[in-house]
Each structure stands twice: as C-alpha cells, then as structure tokens.
Amino acid sequence: MAVNHPAEHGGPDAQGVPLHDFSTNANACGPCPQAVAALRDADAARYPDPAYTALREALGAFHGVAASRIVIAASASEFIHRVTALAAQRRATAVRLPAHSYGDYARAAAAWGLATVPAGQGGEAPAGPAAGLHWACEPSSPLGQEDPALAPGCAVPEGALQVVDCAYAPLRLHGTPRPLPPTAWQLWTPNKALGLTGVRASYAVAPAGACEDLVAGLVRLAPSWPLGAHGVALLQAWTQPATQHWLASSRDTLRAWKAAQIALCAALGWQVQPGSLANYFTARLPPALAADMPATLAALRAQGIKLRDCASFGLPGQVRLGVLGPEAQAALGCAVLAADLTAADGG
C-alpha cells in the first residue's frame, strides 16, 4: 500500500501552539516536575556516552531485565522505521497492522516496499502474504482499547517479529494490564506520560532469549548518538521512584477529568465511543458536522481548540480527544457554541 500523504500528527501546526490542544495524548497534568528538573540539569556541553551504558543499566533495572536487552532509540517513530528496516533485511514481505493504528507503522512499511495487512477486529491472522513484522499497541490508539492481537491464543508465526507499542501503557486509567507476550519486543516512549512530548527519547526492551543478532542489527541501523543529553536526562528521570509516584498521582486526576470530559461531549451531542482505558477517547460527531470535517475543525481551531481527525486512523467522522483539565473543557464547550457547532443547530 503506497502512503503518499504527509504524516498527520496532533500538536502545534502552522498556526502555532493551540490554546487548548486536545489533539495529542500527552499527560495534561504535566510537565512532570522531576523530569523538568533533570532536563534543567542536563549537561548539553558534552556528548553522551555513545553506548549509553549507565542509561541502559538504569532502564534494565527499571524493567527487571539485563541491560543488554535495552535498545536506545531517538523516538518511537525512529524505532518504528528502524525495526521495519530490520524486518526488510530479514526478507519480510509484509507488515501486520492493528485495525486502526498510528500511521508511521504503514509509512515505514511503504518506505521499504512491504505490503501492509490489517488484523481482523478480533486480532485473528489475516489473509494474504505472511507478515514478518507484527505491530500491536496497548492500549490502542485512537480507541484506547485493549489490542485484540494480544489476546490469549493470538500467536505470531515463528520467526516473525512482534513489537508492542507501549506509548500509552503508563497512561492507562482503567482495568488491570494483561501480561504482554513473552516473545514480543516492547517499545516505550515516556515523554507522553511525563507531559514533555517536545523531548524526543525512546527505548525498546528485547524479549528474553531474543537472538543477539537481532539486537545487534538494530544497533547497527541506528545513527551515532540517537539521544542527546536531554533525551538521556528524560529517560534517567523516568526510572526514578519520585517520577513514578508523580505519574501514579496524575492518573487519579486524569480519571476525574476524563469522566467530566465524556459527559461534556455527550451533552454536546457527540457520540463517545465506549471502551477507552486510557487518557483519550474518540467521539463521533453529528452527521452535519462530520460532513465537512475540515471546516468543523477549522472553526474550532479559530477558537483556540484543536482536535485530532480520526480519518487517518480509518475512522472518518470521528475525532480523538486527549483528556484535558476543567479550564480547557469549559473552553471546548464555549467554542462549540460560539462556532455554532451544536448537534441541535445541525452545524
């Protein structure tokens, strides 16, 4: 599948930083003060250790694994492209994607000429070419639900790579996380959970017993110093107990804000899609508003509100809303009224 359109992301745009940005899934309680302090103290006058020895040891201890299983990445998107390159080197011909997922999975596959095969709604193995790389996201984006591809009994073919994108795992607000497949790679991106998405830093945890050649292959494909001093500082702060305590407390706040935001959307006549476990959810707009989604979103953007169009996720007519605080929610309600976007008015 060719992916020729520009990458779509939430966050700042040509108009600058939105006053109230519902379009990203960053922790609205942030930025995390412990991480901010670490960034302030980072020594940007020197190169980091190119092997990231101390950082990999800290991350390994944090996850209870050997440091040799930690692969440093410049960002989640960078790792997505790098692991896809590795799959292509291993003669993969296709990549399996969740039914609805982050566009960089498909963009990376297209860059390497690999077919993309969507998983079924139940996570079952798809028809078509056998996938050498399988993506899952837990919780999923944009729906925030458990990825059916990780349900018990959904096995990955022997020899295929499976990567679980754990970007939103720290921002799971409901339910008990289920164990991840022991043979899967885990991709972690703490900047969302810490409310510091402007700092690009990520890492992957190789599964126990992963072939050393796989880890070495990913390292060979990386540029020198994928992380600068600030990325190192962010990931070091991530492993600290005080940071994790702050994160746990923020989840309590986000639960309350999420309930209020869902109620607001329902009051506006937007159909909130059930089942989100995370700090974001999707809502289907009334037909009159969804009929011209660009105009609807532009009208809200003019009022300082930015939402994420879900068309690129394969969910036309829906928007994804990250959970924000009471002030932003009040602004959303006022903006909808000011732009005459209520369901009752028909758009």
Task: Furnish the topology, listing elements before pairings.
Elements: E1 20-21, H1 33-41, H2 53-63, E2 70-73, H3 76-89, E3 94-97, H4 103-111, E4 115-118, E5 133-137, E6 161-165, E7 185-188, E8 202-205, H5 212-221, H6 229-238, H7 241-267, E9 271-272, E10 280-284, H8 287-290, H9 293-301, E11 305-306, E12 308-309, E13 318-322, H10 326-338
Helix pairs in contact: 1-6, 3-4, 3-5
Structure description:
The protein is an alpha/beta fold. It is built from ten helices and 13 strands. Strands 2-8-7-6-5-3-4 form a seven-stranded mixed β-sheet, sandwiched between helices. It has a four-stranded antiparallel β-sheet with strand order 9-10-13-12, covered by helices on one side. Helix 4 (103-111) links the parallel strand 3 (94-97) and strand 4. Helix 1 packs antiparallel against helix 6, helix 3 runs parallel beside helix 4 and helix 3 (76-89) crosses helix 5.
